[in-house]
Amino acid sequence: MKLQVLIPQYKETDEVIGTMLDSLKIQQNVDFNEFGVVICNDGSDVFLNESLFDNYPFKIEYYKEPHRGVSGTRNACLDHSTADYVMFCDADDMFVSACGLYIIFQEIDREGGFKTLSSLFVEEARFEGKPFYVNHENDATFVHGKVHNRQFLIDNKIRWNEKLTIHEDSFFNVLTQTVAGEIKYSNNAFYLWRWRDDSVCRHDPKYILKTYNNMLDSNTALVEEFLNRNMADSAKYHATNMIYEAYFTLNKQEWIDQENQEYRRAVENRFKKYYSTFKILFDSTSDEIKHKIISGIKNRMFREGMFLETITFNDWIKQIESQE
Fold first, then answer.
1. 25 and 59, same domain (yes or no)
2. How many angstroms separate the CA atoms of 64 and 74, rounded?
3. Range of the domain at 259
């Protein structure tokens, strides 16, 4: 089998996951003998009706696992998979294009295949109750629209970090893309990140403020992983990037507003630990790399909206270090 889609399932019902499966059923110009789906239940008491799977022209494997969280369940899906290539999908999403699998198979069939394929994907969002759609270019933030050579993951011991349940995608994606070195990109969007009314990360305006500590946890795990793999340059780069990212993020207006000072204090307390842990990596990063990181972050944040440098980086670090 060439490709399997791997789906963790927790509270998603037949109706919800059926949308994903239906979007796969209508794929064009694909030999479904070369394609399959692996679904793992994450210790939930909401089980899928396995007769549902009879409606589809491809093989669907359903496993009931103990509760391990999203990262652990994705690992379970990977352990059950047997295909040459795997794609991690969420149960409540879907393929946006009926030629999506054909696009992936084209890349798989090219000479040499690929280690990791990263594509543009579409986000379904809401404005004043009405849907609109946003294209996300190739990135390492979201799991969506990415396909991996399964043996490459196995050979390099690349797995989801089971301690991470928020911002866990960044750990896996950055690790995979860094170890792969050469990433194949596709500007053909075939994956839709669907809107959910109960999706906290998209309709809670303070989601980033509330979970920035989790982002620091995810990056900590990533840097430690690189150090364990003797990838010192990657460890230095991503630690330095996170340090500057935190500085510029906390200079955004939302972090300066008085109503959000509780979140700011919590993040600065967590950042103090982060900085003391990786200061030696930051100090050993060349000025050239630091300038490139700063330039990249500034350019991105100017596109997202103006931010204020209310305090210099050096003064902020001194302030952090002096906190009790």
1. yes
2. 13
3. 207-322
